[in-house]
Amino acid sequence: MIILGIESSCDETAAAIVERGRIIRSQVVASQISVHSPYGGVVPELASRKHVEAIIPVIDKAVRESGCSLDEIDAIGVTCGPGLVGSLLVGIAAAKAIAYALDKPLIPVNHLEGHLWAAFLGGDPPSGPSVCLVVSGGHTALYFVKPGEPPQLLGTTLDDAAGEAFDKVAKLLGLGYPGGVVIDRLSEQGNPQAVSFPRSFLGRDSFDFSFSGIKTAVVNFVKKFGSPLDSSKEILPYRVEDVVASFQEAIVDVLLEKTTMAAERKGVRHVAVVGGVAANRRLRERFTERAMEKGWDLRLPPLAFCTDNAVMIAAAAYEVWKREGFCRDLFSVDALSRWY
Ligand code: KG4
Ligand code: ZN
What we know:
binds zinc ion, 5-stranded mixed β-sheet, binds 5'-O-[(R)-(carboxyoxy)(hydroxy)phosphoryl]adenosine, 10 strands
C-alpha cells in the first residue's frame, strides 16, 4: 500500500510518499517561515497564496524523488482539518484533482492524528492504550488512544496553544519567529528559576489548558521592567535568557503535570508527546526523566517529524484506511477548521 500524503493546514506545504505507513520513499516540505516572520505569526491570507504557488511543485518533487510513478500510488491521504480553511482547501483541491483524474481513492486525515502517528514512525505502535499530548502552534490537547480506534479528546486549551504562547512571548521580546525555536535555544543559557511565572492548572480534575495567563504575566513583566526592544524604558534587571528559560519552565511544568495526571487516571504506561513544541529540548528532557520515574513507554517523534510534514499524514492515512477503509464519496471531502 503506497500512499501520497499531502499537508497544507497551516504554513507548511508538504507532500510525501510512504509505503505501508512506515517506509518513507520521499518527503518534501516548503516552509513559509520567511513570509510570516516579519509579522511574528502566521497571516492566513498570505499562507493560502503561498500554498497555491507551492502545492504542485511540492507534489511533483515528492513523486519524482520517490522513484514511483503516480500510477503506482494506491491512495492519496490529505489533511482535512483542523487548520486554516483557506490553507486546507489548497491541499484538498490538489488531492481531489489527482484522485479524480487517476481514479485513486482518497483518505481524509485529521491533522492531530497525523502528529500522533509521527511518534510511532520509528517502531511498532503501542500495543495497549496510550495518552497522547499534541502540543503545537495551533493546538494543545490531551487524547486517550486505543489501538485501532479514533483518538478520544480528554482536554484542550481554552485560549492560546502552547506554541502560540512561545511565538507571542518571543514577539514581545523581539526575539524573532518561530518563537519556540529561539526561546528553546536562548533558554540553554538561562536560569529556569529566575522569575516565577504563573502555572494555570484549572482545577485538580481538569485536563484542559490555559496559557493566556502566563502570556499576560510576561506582558506585565515587560511593562514593569522594560523590554530589551524598548530603550526608553528601564533596562531589564534580568537577563533575557533567564526570563525565557523561566517562561519555558512554567509551560513545560503544566504540560508535564497534566499529562502525568491523564496517564495515571487512565492507568496507561504508553505516553506520546507530539507536535512542533515536542521538539523543545527542555520538554524532551523533563518528559524523559518522568518516564524513567514512572516506567512509561514514552514516544517522542524525531525532531524532523515534530513540526508539520506530510510523512505523518501518509502514515496516519494508512491507519485510517485500516480502520475505516477508503472514503467513497470524493465530493463529500471538505475542509474543517475544527475537528476532534
Ligand atoms: O506542529 P507545528 O509545525 O504547527 C502546528 O500544527 O501548529 O508547530 C509549530 C509550533 C510553533 O508555535 C513553534 O514556535 C513551535 O511549534 N516550536 C517549538 C519548537 N520548535 C517549534 N516550541 C518550543 N520549542 C521548540 N524547539
Ligand atoms: Zn501541526
